[in-house]
Amino acid sequence: MTTVETPKLYKVLSRDGESCHGGSLQWSLPTQNENGSWTPGEWADVEGTLILCENGLHLTSQPSGWYRDGATLYVAEYEGEIVQDSLGDKVCVRRSRLIAKTDWAQHGVYREGEHVLYGNATATLSDNATATLSGNATATLYGNATATLYDNATATLYDNATATLSDNA
Question: Global pTM?
Fold first, then answer.
């Protein structure tokens, strides 16, 4: 018997728990208990035909690609029907709930501190985060984030972000 593991899915929301990449759903947020565990939020449901980017509750297995300054990130679960894009990193579901808040840094999104990326690593930097990238590493920088790039590393910069380049970067 072969077991297929479903990838963990996430929801990116504004600080107040509202959808921030289209739609206006106010999600029921999970609450953290005194012992550190989480109580999930209430289930959200949609009716009608599930269509990516049009109708459904949208989740992702790759949250760093959906980072937005000030956004919050939650682990989500779903029940029932699912539609996914060709890459499988964006899905649309009929029924979902948020089960715990999670840290962006666990997904390569850094808002502070110093980080080093090698090889094919990717990261999103924001606020006062800094990174050194080498090999084929890539980064997207927002706010006052800075990066130093070597070899074939690449960066996309927004706001006041800065980068220092050398070699083929």
Answer: 0.71
Residues in the chain: 169
Please give the helix or strand (H or E) that residue 45 lies within, else none: strand 44-45
Cα angle, residue 89 at apex, residues 7 and 82 outer, rounded to 5°: 70
Taking residues 16-33, what's their average pLDDT?
A: 86
Q: Structure tokens of 40?
A: 């999930």
DSSP 22: S
Cβ-based burial of 86 (10 A; exposed 0-12, middle 13-18, buried ≥19): exposed
Cβ atoms of 118 and 135 closer than 8 Å: yes
pLDDT in tens, 50-75: 998 899 999 998 888 888 778 899 99
The DSSP line for 104-159 is GGGGTEESSSEEEE-TT-EEEE-TT-EEEE-TT-EEEE-TT-EEEE-TT-EEEE-T
